[in-house]
Design brief:
The protein has 4 domains: 114 residues; 157 residues, no CATH class; 146 residues, no CATH class; 129 residues, no CATH class. It is 42% helix and 30% strand. The protein contains 17 helices and 24 strands. It has a 17-stranded antiparallel β-sheet that branches. The radius of gyration is 50 Å and the shape is elongated.
């Protein structure tokens, strides 16, 4: 009696909880977009859990019959499933209809009818989940519709999942493509045992049989019409699997736990048959995975995407001494590549490439050295990125590093032809087991030889530049001297009725400077062997000639300075007795001492100039004197100026006159 009462109470409590949950669930029907493409209506149940609502119970979605713009394509998507606490749970079904509509005619009658043809594909999928994780059987099927009828031949695939990973038996069949796959996955999700694939290749039926051992491909056989056309054994994998020590050729390895998908790779390069032989079969397999992904791979927080591990790899641990070598090798290679790039992009070398006989060859060698250095750096970058952690590096470089594994050649352009030259090293990167040490040795050889070429190139271009600089100076000097000789009448003979001192100042100055200064500098310039000294003398010579050319007109007027200033130091006042104004000279001492003693002193100094700077300063000094005298004349009534005039009466020493004039 007591037991019946307990059962009755428990049933009442359960019923009460169900009723309570039912009261907290509401059904919502709303517009939404699925897969970012299909506009439709979803019907969803929401359970209020504390302050938030979670998806709970049945779910349905049906899209509109989607008419693609500017096409005759009709698409529709239908989905049904179940949520448990916001996660996919149980069976979910998808049905995607993709039709192409061809309207032939409108048939008239009491009821109008269309004469049409409907072709396309009906895609369906059934996926099982457990609390948002793929778990259980997954199936997909494609049915072809042709002329309004579903065809008997269909395509499909079947997988089993456990905790998100595909395991156990699998199979697929392509009705139109006439393909199939059949095999088994371990409980960890890796191919194991016999995997059979059938497909058409170049119009011929191929049966491909692969033997896997817990994710490792060990044999691949292709048959055509019962005849074996390929029997490929992965002996490197078999050898590794048999190794009890987990070591091969001094390289340690372990078995990876992660999966790597369809392609089995043990470091084979892109042209290796062990890689290329898998391509067609993998493509057949991928078609069905893509069809599953069409429905399952959309980003969704309510479910986990399916994991297909399929193959695994060896995880390699390369010798520690390699890293020690790389520590020095990597920065060296980076410096080499940067240095060679700088040389090859240097405008000075590019512009003069065909002017110096050796430069084209050096350009070609350095460019080839740059490429080979970058090749070695690329290997190190791949290692640093972990590229070879799961790829056996000796398989990837079976013959060593291309371009450095044997004597080679490089091409270079001369002004007329394209030539080739040998590129030989004392050691080559030809042993896949010794790649790093060989790269280290090869890089040192390349660096030493390239350094010699670069040093020679810089020396040649320096000599070329120096000669170009000197040629330019020679040209400037000749042009300026020729112009000044004419400007200053250098070759004019002194008339018989005149002395040298009676000739114009420009003639006298240029004669004196030419014989005493310019000729001396010119001879030193011609005799100089040191480039820097020669340039210094050449620049001094061009400076003097350029200054003389620029200042010629001013120099010619220096002796006329007193006459030009006379009117500034003359004042006119009304004459009470005559019509003509009275002319008065103002500041006679300032005028007389400045345009006499001081000006003559300044002009004499011009003839004694020893450098371009001296001559420049002494010319400017005369110009400054003229400006100062005009300033004083304009302020002649100033008592300070009057006192200065009185002070200069007794002065006859140029330096004292200069100081009093504040020059």
């Amino acid at each position: 009696m007591m037991m019946k009462a307990k059962i009755y109470i428990l049933a009442l409590l359960t019923l009460f909880q169900v009723e309570l949950i039912a009261q907290n669930i509401r059904t919502v029907s709303r517009d939404t977009v699925y897969f970012e493409e299909f506009v439709g209506t979803e019907e969803i149940r929401l359970l209020k859990n504390d302050s938030i609502e979670v998806k709970q119970g049945r779910y349905n979605f049906i899209s509109e019959l989607y008419d693609l713009p500017a096409s005759k394509q009709l698409n529709r998507l239908r989905i049904s499933g179940n949520f448990k606490e916001d996660k996919f749970d149980g069976l979910w079904t998808y049905k995607l209809d993709e039709y192409k509509l061809q309207v032939n005619d409108v048939i008239e009658g009491r009821i109008l009818r269309l004469d049409y043809e409907l072709d396309g594909i009906e895609r369906s999928a059934k996926f099982s989940y457990k609390e948002g994780v793929p778990h259980g059987k997954w199936e997909i099927e494609n049915v072809v519709v042709k002329n309004n009828r579903r065809q008997a031949a269909s395509s499909g695939a079947s997988f089993n999942f456990s905790n998100g990973t595909a395991i156990g038996d699998f199979s697929s069949k392509g009705g139109i493509s006439n393909t199939s796959t059949l095999g088994k996955l371990t409980n960890e999700g890796f191919f194991d045992g016999l995997v059979t694939l059938e497909y058409e290749e170049e119009g011929k039926r191929i049966v491909e049989r692969r033997i896997y051992e817990n994710g490792f491909l060990i044999n691949l056989i292709k048959q055509q019409g019962g005849e074996v056309i390929l029997d490929l054994e992965y002996e490197d994998v078999i050898r590794n699997l048999k190794s009890l020590e987990g070591t091969i050729e001094n390289i340690d390895f372990t078995i990876s736990e992660e999966g790597f998908g369809l392609l089995f790779q043990n470091g084979y390069n892109e042209s290796d048959l062990k890689l290329t032989a898998q391509e067609v079969g993998n493509a057949v397999f991928k078609v069905f995975l893509d069809r599953i992904g069409r429905f399952a791979n959309q980003a969704d927080e309510n479910r986990q995407q399916p994991e297909f591990k399929f193959t695994r790899r060896f995880k390699f641990v390369y010798p520690a001494e390699e890293q020690s070598i790389i520590t020095d090798l990597e920065p060296r290679l980076k410096i080499m590549v940067d240095e060679y790039n700088d040389f090859l992009s240097n405008p000075n070398f590019i512009l003069n490439k065909f002017r110096i006989d050796s430069l084209p060859y050096i350009f070609g060698y350095v460019d080839h050295a740059r490429k080979r250095s970058q090749d070695m750096l690329d290997v190190i970058n791949l290692m640093n990125e972990g590229f070879f952690d799961f790829l056996y590096r000796p398989n990837y470089y079976p013959d060593g590093l291309p371009g450095l594994n044997k004597p080679s050649s490089f091409s270079y352009e001369t002004e007329k032809d394209e030539l080739t030259a040998p590129f030989e090293l004392d050691i080559y990167v030809d042993d896949p087991m010794q790649m790093i040490s060989q790269m280290d040795a090869a890089s040192e050889i390349i660096q030493k030889r390239a350094d010699r070429f670069l040093e020679y190139a810089f020396m040649e271009i320096r000599i070329f530049d120096q000669q170009a600089t000197i040629d330019s100076l020679d040209n400037q000097i000749v042009q300026l001297k020729t112009k000044n000789d004419a400007l200053y009448s250098y070759f004019q003979n002194i008339p018989s009725d005149r002395t040298f001192d009676q000739m114009p100042i420009d003639y006298r100055l240029y004669r004196v400077l030419s014989n005493n200064l310019l000729l001396d500098i010119q001879e030193k310039y011609l005799d100089a062997d040191d480039f820097d000294e020669k340039v210094k003398l050449g620049e001094e010579l061009t400076c003097l000639h350029a200054l003389l050319e620029e200042e010629h007109d001013d120099i010619l007027e220096f002796e006329n300075l007193p006459a030009r200033l006379d009117k500034d130091f003359t004042r006119f006042s009304p004459n009470p007795f005559f019509e003509r104004d009275i002319e008065t000279k103002i500041l006679p001492s300032i005028y007389g001492k400045s345009t006499g003693i001081l000006l003559q002193y300044y002009i004499e100094n011009l003839f004694q100039s020893k450098t371009c700077e001296h001559l420049t300063n002494r010319i400017r000094r005369i110009e400054k004197l003229e400006d100062r005298l005009k300033e004083l004349a304009s302020d002649s009534d100033n008592p300070e100026v009057v006192r200065l005039d009185r002070a200069l009466r007794r002065e006859n020493i140029p330096s004292r006159i200069e100081r009093l004039l504040n020059l």
